[in-house]
Amino acid sequence: MEQEIDTAQLGEEIVRTLKTIYDPEIPVDIYELGLVYDVMVNTDNEVKILMTLTSPNCPVAESLPLEVEEKIKKIDGVSAAEVEITFDPPWTRDLMSEEAKLELGML
Fold it and tell me: Where does the source fall among the domains of life (predicted)?
Protein backbone atom coordinates (compact mmCIF):
# COMPACT_ATOMS: atom_id res chain seq x y z
CA MET A 1 0.00 0.00 0.00
CA GLU A 2 2.82 2.40 0.86
CA GLN A 3 4.32 1.83 -2.60
CA GLU A 4 1.07 3.04 -4.20
CA ILE A 5 1.08 6.22 -2.11
CA ASP A 6 4.71 6.86 -2.99
CA THR A 7 3.96 6.34 -6.69
CA ALA A 8 1.01 8.74 -6.49
CA GLN A 9 3.11 11.35 -4.68
CA LEU A 10 5.87 10.87 -7.20
CA GLY A 11 3.36 11.36 -10.02
CA GLU A 12 2.22 14.64 -8.48
CA GLU A 13 5.84 15.81 -8.20
CA ILE A 14 6.46 14.89 -11.83
CA VAL A 15 3.46 16.97 -12.94
CA ARG A 16 4.66 19.91 -10.80
CA THR A 17 8.05 19.65 -12.49
CA LEU A 18 6.53 19.43 -15.98
CA LYS A 19 4.66 22.66 -15.22
CA THR A 20 8.02 24.43 -14.81
CA ILE A 21 9.09 23.64 -18.39
CA TYR A 22 7.95 26.09 -21.04
CA ASP A 23 7.72 25.93 -24.80
CA PRO A 24 9.99 28.80 -25.87
CA GLU A 25 7.62 29.94 -28.62
CA ILE A 26 4.43 29.89 -26.55
CA PRO A 27 4.49 31.34 -23.01
CA VAL A 28 2.70 28.33 -21.48
CA ASP A 29 4.16 25.30 -19.74
CA ILE A 30 4.30 22.04 -21.68
CA TYR A 31 1.78 20.32 -19.39
CA GLU A 32 -0.96 22.94 -19.77
CA LEU A 33 -0.09 23.24 -23.47
CA GLY A 34 -1.12 19.59 -23.87
CA LEU A 35 2.26 18.38 -25.08
CA VAL A 36 2.40 15.63 -22.42
CA TYR A 37 0.25 12.68 -23.45
CA ASP A 38 1.14 10.23 -20.68
CA VAL A 39 3.33 9.86 -17.60
CA MET A 40 4.08 6.31 -16.50
CA VAL A 41 5.84 5.33 -13.28
CA ASN A 42 6.65 1.67 -12.64
CA THR A 43 7.25 -0.02 -9.29
CA ASP A 44 11.00 0.71 -9.56
CA ASN A 45 10.19 4.44 -9.90
CA GLU A 46 11.36 4.50 -13.48
CA VAL A 47 9.51 7.22 -15.35
CA LYS A 48 8.49 7.23 -18.99
CA ILE A 49 6.92 10.32 -20.50
CA LEU A 50 5.09 10.20 -23.81
CA MET A 51 4.91 13.65 -25.30
CA THR A 52 4.70 15.55 -28.54
CA LEU A 53 5.85 18.87 -29.91
CA THR A 54 3.77 21.62 -31.45
CA SER A 55 5.12 20.56 -34.86
CA PRO A 56 7.65 18.08 -36.26
CA ASN A 57 9.77 21.08 -37.32
CA CYS A 58 9.76 22.57 -33.82
CA PRO A 59 13.05 24.43 -33.24
CA VAL A 60 13.45 22.79 -29.81
CA ALA A 61 12.81 19.25 -31.07
CA GLU A 62 16.21 18.15 -29.80
CA SER A 63 16.57 20.23 -26.64
CA LEU A 64 13.07 20.14 -25.12
CA PRO A 65 12.87 16.35 -24.62
CA LEU A 66 16.36 16.42 -23.07
CA GLU A 67 15.32 19.22 -20.71
CA VAL A 68 12.25 17.22 -19.66
CA GLU A 69 14.30 14.08 -19.08
CA GLU A 70 16.99 15.90 -17.06
CA LYS A 71 14.48 17.71 -14.82
CA ILE A 72 12.52 14.51 -14.14
CA LYS A 73 15.74 12.61 -13.29
CA LYS A 74 16.50 15.22 -10.60
CA ILE A 75 13.30 14.48 -8.67
CA ASP A 76 13.97 12.59 -5.44
CA GLY A 77 12.82 9.02 -5.80
CA VAL A 78 13.07 8.82 -9.60
CA SER A 79 15.47 6.03 -10.51
CA ALA A 80 15.43 6.64 -14.28
CA ALA A 81 13.61 8.79 -16.82
CA GLU A 82 12.90 8.41 -20.50
CA VAL A 83 11.06 10.73 -22.87
CA GLU A 84 9.45 9.36 -26.00
CA ILE A 85 8.31 11.79 -28.69
CA THR A 86 5.30 10.92 -30.81
CA PHE A 87 3.32 12.78 -33.43
CA ASP A 88 0.36 10.41 -33.27
CA PRO A 89 -1.96 12.05 -32.59
CA PRO A 90 -0.55 15.35 -33.80
CA TRP A 91 -0.76 18.28 -31.39
CA THR A 92 -3.62 20.72 -31.89
CA ARG A 93 -4.84 23.69 -29.88
CA ASP A 94 -7.71 21.50 -28.69
CA LEU A 95 -5.22 19.69 -26.43
CA MET A 96 -4.51 22.86 -24.44
CA SER A 97 -6.03 23.24 -20.99
CA GLU A 98 -8.63 25.93 -20.34
CA GLU A 99 -5.97 27.72 -18.27
CA ALA A 100 -3.57 27.78 -21.22
CA LYS A 101 -6.26 29.01 -23.61
CA LEU A 102 -7.21 31.76 -21.17
CA GLU A 103 -3.57 32.81 -20.75
CA LEU A 104 -3.16 33.04 -24.52
CA GLY A 105 -6.40 34.99 -24.96
CA MET A 106 -8.15 32.17 -26.79
CA LEU A 107 -11.25 32.15 -24.57
Answer: Bacteria
